[in-house]
Structure formats: C-alpha cells, structure tokens
Amino acid sequence: MLRMLKIVEFVWIIMGVICAYEFINHLSVEGNMKYIFGGGVIVSIFMYFFRKRTRLRYEQIQREKEQKGDA
User: Fold this and answer.
1) What residues make up the domain containing 28?
2) pLDDT mean for each 10 residues of the chain (71 residues)
3) pTM, full prediction
4) What is the number of domains present in the chain?
C-alpha cells in the first residue's frame, strides 16, 4: 500500500514536469493552451504535496497501531 502511495506522488511530479514543459512551449503561441498547462502545473504541485501529507499521516497511524499492538 505504501509503495502505491509513493508511486502516485511520483506520477504527480511527472505530470507537473510535462505540464511545465508544454506551458513553456506554448508561451509564444496564441490561444488558451498555455493557461490550461499552467493550471496543470499548479494542480500537480498541489496534489503532490497533498498526497505526500496524506501518505505521511497514514504511515504515522500505522506506526501508532503497531505500537498499541505491541503494548
């Protein structure tokens, strides 16, 4: 389970890099695609930190359960 949560974080990083690359490529082109990719960068950064915080909280809960089971 923890491995999957770390993979999801990594996927959000990759999405952010791809969106940033496309955002830079579309800066000189007219149209709204640059705003869509810019939004993608913002969303992917937010989701990375949100998912990381959620995973760390989940790990802490699992450690507390193990400590209660040992006592």
Assistant:
1) 2-58
2) 89 96 92 93 97 94 88 59
3) 0.83
4) 1
